[in-house]
Amino acid sequence: MVVPNHSAVTRRRLLGAGAAVSASLIAGCIGGEGPAGGDRLHFTQEQSREEQFDPVVSNDAYSFQVIQLVFDGLYEYGEGLELQPKLAAGEPTVERDGTRYIFELEEGATFHNGDEVTAGDVAHSFTAPVEEETENASEYDMIESTEVIDDYQLQVDLGEDPYGPFELATMGVTVVPESVRTDDREAFNTDPVGSGPFEFADLQENEYVDLERNDDYWDDLEPNIPEVRFVAHDDDAGRVSDIRAENTDVIAGVPNEDWDVLEDESGVSLYSAESPTFMYMAFNCNEGPTTNPEVRRAIAHSFSISDFIESNAANVTSPMYSPVPPVVNEVWGFPQDEYQEMLPDYDPDEAQSLLDEHAPDDFTPTIITPEGIRAQLAERIATRLDEIGYGADVQVLDFATLVDTYTSGSADDYQMYLLGWTGGPDPDYYLYPLFHESQAGVNQGHYYAGSDGFHAAIAEGRNSAGQEERYDIYEPVIREIVDQLPVLPAFTQDNTMAARDYVQGLQAHPEVTRNPTLVADYTNVSLE
């Protein structure tokens, strides 16, 4: 999905596998006191929540940070972006050339009300988003039908073709109790019943959410922390002041400019993980001078993205060399080093030479951008172009205006735009919405025609099963994007947290909705 601001993203339900470290080995001592006293963990989120806690409906990352502690998934993340079973008893049986999946459930898993988790609940969790036309429908609309074989076996049939991301993403469905949810959906949305390690205790809308430990949790894992309070503080300076003054135990979203301050702060520890985000500058490939790849290449030569990151965001971002974020590439292994070599390096003389040859004499491109770090990058590009005799007109737009503008494809509106995208552990999340021709004017405004077979390959990758086969389909597509530069990869952002030192076992997760992970097979957070 398009990211107007990294801390204001909608959620993706993704999967991951991590190291199988016994939580009991990491438990440590318990009994520290947070700002509220007792054993409650006080977690300050970087953005306000929409206060929707029904996983079928919720499409808000910050509500989902609460949801992921209350509900279990059929499969869930471990420490990274690979698959591990949770309510599923193991890997699914795959039949019919990758279009049929048979899941077997753990027996004895229970919801907070004592009801057992059944295949019917899982089926409802898969189909309800589409049947109810929620914002999450597109994540499940490849499912043609479900069949409950018995209480612990579910068959899921896709359409005629496989859906490539199914095993890396869709199977991570968060499981809800069908009977409780459908009895009163409105009540369920603000007082949900899950099967997870924590239960809903109290909600004061726009103030706080309180969770308490589920002492009858079906899994072997037992959370060290008895209570959690979520509050939201979207002012960066305010969050930093709170953690320094011990008014909270943990804050999410450490600003780049405050990283060094908190790093030197006694009693505070910092945590960071690369996220599956793709920040980029796109060129108008529909009309105007930037339809010429040599003009695009010239602009890429005119500035140094690595220098920009070093001076503006070194603590909270990492450079990117393709449309697949590095943390996703850990799952797939595309040749990032080769892509880095293919990208134009900083060479103002070459930039000027190419523009003199291929661009109009009065070339002053319009760059549209949201505010924040991308506006800073746009200004840096304009400055560097000005140094070689061209310049650029930077227009900082509110996000609604930006969306209406960049999807036009009109050279009267822009030649470049800066945006971001967050997805999951599958290349399809980036290649299909940002480059397939069907998404032109929807999720993209660059209108890149591509070589013969470019768009067909993206569609083929989506409708193929097997990671090796899909790798061979996607690699030439990624290579063409890096070579032809319909978009220039910029950087990926990190998920960051700062915590008081008495918070033990905390880790930053690549997927923003998994923060904070308080209990898993690789950690069990405690207040010591």
From TrEMBL:
Residues 82-440 form the Solute-binding protein family domain. PANTHER family: OLIGOPEPTIDE-BINDING PROTEIN APPA, PERIPLASMIC BINDING COMPONENT OF ABC TRANSPORTER. Signal peptide: none annotated. The keyword Transport applies. CDD domains: PBP2_NikA_DppA_OppA_like. Belongs to the bacterial solute-binding protein 5 family. It comes from Haloarchaeobius amylolyticus. Pfam families: SBP_bac_5. GO terms for cellular component: periplasmic space. Keywords: Signal, Transport. This is ABC transporter substrate-binding protein.
